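Hi, can you check this record?
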Amino acid sequence: MTGTVDPTGAVDPDLVEMMDAVFAHYRDIHPGGVVGDAALWRRLDDLGLVRLTGPEESGGSGAGWYEAAELLAAAVRYAVRIPLAEHDLLACWLLQANQMPADSAVRTVCLLDDRGVADDVPWASGADRIVVVWRTGSDYQLAEVAAESLVITAGTNLIGEPRDSVSADPAVLRGVPVAAPVVATLARRSALVRSIQVCAALDRIVQLSVEHATSRVQFGRPLSKFQAIQHLVADIAAEAALARAATEAALTAAVRSDWSAPNLDFLVAVARSCAGQACSVVVRNAHQVHGAMGTTREHRLHEYTRAALAWRSEFGSVHYWDEQVTRGALEAASGGLWSLITG
C-alpha cells in the first residue's frame, strides 16, 4: 500500500520512513534477498517491530493494525521475506487473546484438520515455536509447541517462502480452550494479511511499469508515448487501486469495530476477491509492458509478480473468495445489499 493505509493519516511518517530505511539497508547488503534472516529478525526486534502490535506491558510496542500494515508493505516493497505477520498479527495475537505470554522467538500458527495435519503452514520450518489449534467437537483447543516437537515436512511457495506440512497428535498436546469466535477472527486476520501484502506488491508493480514505460525508448520515443502501452499501464493502475480500496475498506471496518463488524466477513471476502482478480491483469500487463526484460532473473519485476500470484491463493483461493462474495450478496438480497456493503 502506498503512503499510509490509515485514511485518517494517523501513522507517524517518521515510523514509516524508519521501516523503509531498515529494509532498504538490508537489500543493499543482500541484493538477492534472503528468506527468514535471523540477523534481520534481531535487528527488527531491537527496533520494536517484531511485536509491533503487542501490548507494552508484555514487551510489545503497543501499535495498531495501520502501523502493522505499513510494516508489511515496507517489507514487500523491498522484497524482504520474513514472518512478521505470522508472528505478530496471528500467532502472538492468538496467545495474547488467551492470556498466554509471547516473546520475540519466531512463531507461526496452524489449524490441524481431523487427521492432525495442517498443510501449507507459513514459516513452520523456520519457526522456533508453533501455535497449534485443533477442533474438539464443537470447540477448539490451543497449544504453543516447540517446532522440533512436531513433524514438519518442508515445502515452499512460488517465491521460496516456507509453506510446510505440520503433523501432530492432539491427544498428547497439552491444550487450553479457545473460543470459536477467536478462531473465526484468526481466519479473517490471516486473509486480510495476504490482501495487504498482495496490494503492496501490485503497487510496486505499477511503479516499476511506469518507470520502465517512461524511461525505455523504442523507435525514437518513450514507450509511454505508445497508446497500447498507455492502455496497459492504465489498466494496471486501475486494478491495483481497486484492490487497495477494497482492502483499506475491510481494514478500516476491522479496526473500528475491533474485528466484530457484522459485515466484516463480506468486506474481507471482497478485498480478497478484488486483490486476486487484480493480480491476473496486473501481472499480465506488467510483463507485456516490460517485454523480455521483465522475465529475466536480474530484473526485479518477478520479485513482485510471483509474490502477488503466490499470496493471492493463500488462506483461501481466488475461487473461494469469489464464492464468498457471491454467497454474501445472494443471502443479503436486494433489500440488504447496500447495508452489507456500507455496514
Q: What stands out?
A: Residues 15 and 207 are 22 Å apart (CA to CA).
